[in-house]
Design a protein that fits this description.
alpha+beta, three-stranded antiparallel sheet, 3 strands, 16% strand
Length: 101
């Protein structure tokens, strides 16, 4: 009997498991680093002219158009990549709306 190298569960005996992972672990397996690096590109306008301020106990990221792109309490910790993804998404949406008007 063979066992999954991640969770220790029993492997399906009738399938070819060259990776020694059960089907559940294969489905939830982390993406390889080279795939994670190919994330949404951040708009250059956003990074070049964004402003970070502290307002009413919050850290706020604003675009050059004065759109609030992201905010969080000063007591919280957030990864920069998460902030940039969120800000980029909001910037992209607002920019499209502005162009439609």
């Amino acid at each position: 009997m063979e066992f999954c190298k991640d969770c220790g569960g029993v492997l399906n005996l009738f399938s070819d498991n060259s990776s020694n992972l059960c089907s559940s672990c294969i489905q939830h397996k982390k993406k390889p680093d080279h795939e994670q690096a190919q994330e949404i590109p951040i708009a250059q306008d956003l990074l070049a002219e964004a402003v970070i301020t502290v307002e009413n106990g919050k850290i706020v990221l604003r675009s050059k158009e004065d759109w609030q792109l992201w905010s969080a309490p000063t007591t919280s910790q957030t990864e920069l990549q998460t902030i940039l993804k969120s800000a980029n998404l909001i910037y992209t949406i607002r920019n499209k709306r502005k162009k439609r008007q």
